[in-house]
Amino acid sequence: MTTVTEVDPERFGHELDRFVARQGLSRRRFLGRGAATVLMAGGLAQVLAACGIDGTAARNLADLERQARRVNHPRTELGDWTFSNWPLYIDKSVIKDFNAKYGGHCKYVEEINDNNEFYGKVRQQLAAGVPIGRDIVTLTDYMASRWVRFGYVTPIDKRNVPNGRRLVRNLRSITYDPRRQFTLPWQSGAIGIGYDIKQTGGEVRSLRELFDPRWKGRVTLFSEPYDSAGSVLLMEGVDASRATLDQMLGAIERIGKANDDGQFRRFTGNDYTTDLTKGNIALALAYSGDLVQLQSDNPNMRFAYPEEGAMQFTDNMMMPAKVEHPYAAETMMNYVYEPAVAAKICAYVNYISPVEGIKEILERTDPEIASNELIFPPDDVRAKLHSYPSFTTREEQQMYEAMAQVTGA
Amino acid sequence: MSLQRRRKLIPWMFALPGLLWLLLFFAIPLINQAQVSLMSGDPEAGYTLTWAFDTYTNAISDYHEQFLRSFLYAGIATVVDLIIAFPLAYFMAYKAGRWRNLMLLLVVLPFFMSYVLRTVAWQLILADHGWVVERLRDVGLVSADGRVLATGTAVVAGISYNFLPFMVLPLYVALERIDRRFVEAATDLYASRATAFRKVTLPLAIPGIFAGSLLVFIPATGDYINAALLGTSKQYMIGNVVQSKFLTVLDYPTAAALSFILMTVILVGIAIYSRLLGTRTLTEAAV
């Protein structure tokens, strides 16, 4: 297959990257020089020879494990390095303090708005095995799991992250990274019921309320099946963290049926908060941290950890494959696990911190936060938090496809 | 090189940067996506070119509803924009006097804000218990327990609002270029003002109407922001499906096929439309 019509950008990118690598330039710098056109013309013939989008099955966990055993990131100057995170997910003074303390310059970019979108943005570079120009990315469990599965991560040199031992017990091991060799939790949150008590006229405790005809058309769910279908399974008494694909598909089907009956107003991402605060809906599947912030504006906003248990998501710091500043990234990971720093971040973002020993600090500095159950869930709630189930790429695709059918896309 | 040959080459040299640009960022990606649309596989094993034409038939049978909805919503929004924009452009061109520049600025002003933010603002404007919807309830346009947000009306309203300037500006340019002496001549020849408008102004404004409606209709058909923010799963347009296929489901072939189907339908539509309004008008409007 060597006709001119068969150009494949993935392969094209691959060839380009190989060329760039030979020249000792980073891809971005190379593109920045504007010489791209000339080269592309030159390399075109070579590129046209190939077609197809590479699968990811080729890379495997065993290879990563081998890397992890040998990992050694010696101490160096931090230099200019990049930390990608979600918007409003850190007290920016932490970055300033870090730069002042360790030197170098941390370029902190709030560019992750959606796990899948961000993956779409860097996918080709990761598949081609070139640096993505970011040293820490913060992604939610299921996406972190995909990156580990595909070998898109760099192992953490734990000697540079001694504070990692402060990671809370229930997160020290997770299905996709049992020994936390590649990921380190940033913040966690629970998926529960957010509601306006003025509209519901009373407390809401059970996930069943989401399906109660009383609230017909005044409920939103997440379009993310891990969150929505996972919660439905919990409602039905299934341990969602061990759910099979069939169970998830069944839950999605039941969501679809209720949607056909007009039970749900919309399927949302983070934007359910507008519907909730404007009174368009009475209750929503919601993220705990959002409600802490909404509550401060409107005391009628409530969050309930459902009595059946709640899904828990964790966003994880990871170094992408071929990371350029591993030592800087690890120094930062270590820094944000210092209790005083973690307390500062927690007080700002209002999610559940994965770092032990910060409640004591906040009791002194910010007692209101220290006593907030949404930020420090009581033990009986903590015991009922379930992490996401683990699926293969194929299963995940099936699940997303089923959910897309329900959400109309 | 002879002088004559060099002369012949010069225009090509001028066009070269543009041609290269088109080749690199339009032709190659387009060919590539055509190829992707004929691949089969899954994200784990990868996708290979198998000339799977059934992706197209499957895409049409699975998503014809979203296609039809896209054309319907975009069509209504185009008509709504035309109805709003024509009087506005007419006023700006002939009656606004010294306010003309200010009005032009006001038309363009929303563009200084992010598209998504502008649409989110409509979520607030059309909130169920907001001022607008309460007033609509008062006059009986919305039933007591009815809503505007999360309906097709909201999506069409959002699209109409977001693309309005694309209709106003070409219309304004077209109207402004009309030599008013033609209208004077018509009235001198005993045409009423309405007839003069119908027989002189309107036909001369057709390039603007043509350009404006294309500028609104084409991007509106592929839009997914308005449906995502102002609609529900029952209002999703083809853009929402393409986005979900590309980013979430990772089914690149179907996403590419959907894009090509959309493009083909639009191209055929434009061909027919330009036949109806005269082919020359498109290029005229562009000048």
Describe the structure.
- Chain A is built from 18 helices and twelve strands.
- With 409 residues, chain A is α/β, with parallel strands linked by helices.
- Chain B has a two-stranded antiparallel ribbon with strand order 1-2.
- In chain B, helix 2 packs across helix 6 and helix 2 packs antiparallel against helix 8.
- The two termini of chain B are 35 Å apart.
- The model of chain B has no long low-confidence stretch (mean pLDDT 91).
- The chains are: A alpha/beta (409), B mainly alpha (287).
- The interface between A and B is large, with 42 and 48 residues.
Gist of the model:
Chain A is α/β, with parallel strands linked by helices.
Question: Which features characterize this protein?
Answer:
heterodimer, A: 409 residues, alpha/beta, D-Maltodextrin-Binding Protein, domain 2, 3 domains, eleven-stranded mixed β-sheet, 18 helices, globular, disordered N terminus, B: 287 residues, mainly alpha, MetI-like fold, two-stranded antiparallel ribbon
End-to-end gap of chain A? 34 Å
Radius of gyration of chain B: 23 Å
Percentage of β-strand residues of chain A? 15-25%
- The chain-level structural class of chain A is alpha/beta
Spatial gap, N to C terminus of chain B: 35 Å
- Give the strand order, joined by hyphens, for the main sheet of chain B: 1-2
**Please, how many domains of chain B?**
2
CATH architecture of the largest domain in chain A: 3-Layer(aba) Sandwich
Low-confidence stretches of chain B: none
Number of strands of chain A: 12
Major sheet of chain B? 2 strands, antiparallel
CATH superfamily (homologous) name of the largest domain in chain B: MetI-like
The residue ranges of chain A in which pLDDT falls below 50 over 5 or more consecutive positions are 1-50
Name the structural class of chain B: mainly alpha
Q: Please report the first level of CATH classification, the CATH class of the largest domain in chain A.
A: Alpha Beta
> Secondary-structure element sequence of chain A?
HHHEHEHEHEHEEHEHHEHEHEEHHHHHEH
